[in-house]
Amino acid sequence: MKRLTISIVALFVGLAASGQLSNDDVLVRALQDEMDRSLAELQLENEPLPYFISYSVQERKSSTLTYVLGAHDGTNSSLVRLLNVVVRVGSKQLDNTNFLLLEATPDQLNEMGTPHVLPLTDDYDELRRSIWIATDQAYKEALVHYSAKTSAIANQTTAERVNDFSEEEAYQYVDERIPLGLELDQLANLARQVSEVFRGRSEVFSSYATAFSSTTKRTYLDSEGNFHRYSFELCNVRTHASTQTSTGAIVKDGTSALTRDCSRLPKIESLQADAAYMAEHLVDQRQAESLEAYTGPVFMESKAAAEFINQALSGLLVAVPVPMTASPQLNTQIQNIANQMVHRIDTRVFPRNISIVNDPTIDEYRERLLMGSYAVDSQGMPSRRTEMISKGILKNLLTTRSPVAELASTTGSHRGMPIPLPGNLFLQTERGVSQESILEQAIQIADSNGSDFALVIRKIANTQEIEMAHVEMSEMVSATMEGNVAVLPAIHVVKLYPDGREVPVQPMVIVDFVPGHFRDIVATTSQTHHHDVPASPLSGLNVLMAMIRGPGALSGYDQIYSSIVTPGLLIEEMSLRIASGQMPRLPFAPHPMADE
Predict the structure, then answer these.
(1) Which secondary structure element, helix H or strand E, spans residue 200, and what is its range?
(2) CB-based burial, 383-413: b 16+ in 10 Å, e otherwise
(3) d(Cα 563, Cα 164) in Å, to the nearest integer?
(4) Is the pTM of this model over 0.85?
(5) pLDDT tens digits along 533-551
(6) How far apart are CA 388 and CA 489, in angstroms?
(7) Separation of alpha carbons 87 and 75, rounded Å
């Protein structure tokens, strides 16, 4: 331990001498000093010392303004400094992690530890006191998990174990650029002008626009010499709107304009145009046909394809140790959920003309910033390019420092959640064709199946643009438990007829889609497009958490995004059914603006 802590001291001194950190950086000194003391002295009688400690501090300033039809509806601003502490006891071969203590809180299931509020003032003594309390709590929780885990291992027959923590080379990264974000008056102007798009649209029953800006500084250090500090910003202008069909079914939609450089937000005219297009589609949905069920060819335009890949695939392209519990029955259920693709490495999982690469090191695509770019992950590991699928063959999976037997080192993909998450996912295709050719092929497949139309999906809901109801999240959990992929409703769907006629249909849900069906992609467009999507919480270990803790355990994804670069996809056969949901009675009186 002494050798490792000395390396952190040397790193800090070196960074200060080079001008990358100020000599009086009180926060880093407080973290370093308390880590040194804890590694040397933190021990209960007859209990193991910590063998690893990490501290991650996020200092975040954020503001959100909400407007409805041009009227100010709320402001939420915060300035907070949060500390996450991870303490590991035992050894890298066997420690307190990868074990679900059923009476634990959701935070205790997260490898990044429980968040603690730190004082905003750089007062060394108060920082040390707060860090001491947080470290002491994390150590006690680690001991409880370690004791329960060793007991469970002793009382159960388990397969050959792999180490709980990987050996990795120490990495340091410092970027002291200071992002500016947007001021309240700028946010207010954006939200107000976008919200005014819905004025006079009496067929839209409810709507609002929000403008969000945050700046975050993250400081990380651990007992193995890993250190990083950098700052980043996020701006987002969103709309939400809903109405009801003639039968009472609620339909909803939204828009989102994301950027990690607030100076590069789209111009207000573009934001208003997107909101107006969405509102027009929402109105069209009021008279859309109701298609109870469908099985046949489905063409997903690139926006829908990006969300489909995000929700249906990204949670499968991961390798995490299967967490055990004290319950053999629950262990069996966990085995059925986690790591569905680990044993498929070196086998074909996609058509042979498709390859997929995860590369968070790429900053831009066609002069647009990629939201999934990052230099270092939440465990202090550098991001890196990872070839996932090569010509249809699965080659690799995303990992953290918690290894599995087949994949013993990290891909730098720990982004603060229980499972690894992709950064920038590029779906590359050979033999792509024009969209017109794909639509003709879809009609031909439908005709051979005895149907006079095919389905085109233009947009799939995501958890940020659409406010999801509890019943919808529960359906997603159930789908995953049954071995199917979990995908939120397709909200822009049309029937496509041979003469080119399009007929809108009400939102539909993809059903009975299993990982093997990715091989049913029969064609792709030649053009690829970039779409930014919020990280999907609907797969793997995340769904397990929802099963044990309830959907509230899936919180925390608000500022984690991926960028998906994909062509449009034609799937030869896919099953969908009409989306279920609330059907309250229509309003008795018309909208107050109906006569304007």
Answers:
(1) none
(2) beebebbbebebebbbbbbbbbeebeebbbb
(3) 30
(4) yes
(5) 988 755 555 555 544 544 4
(6) 27
(7) 37
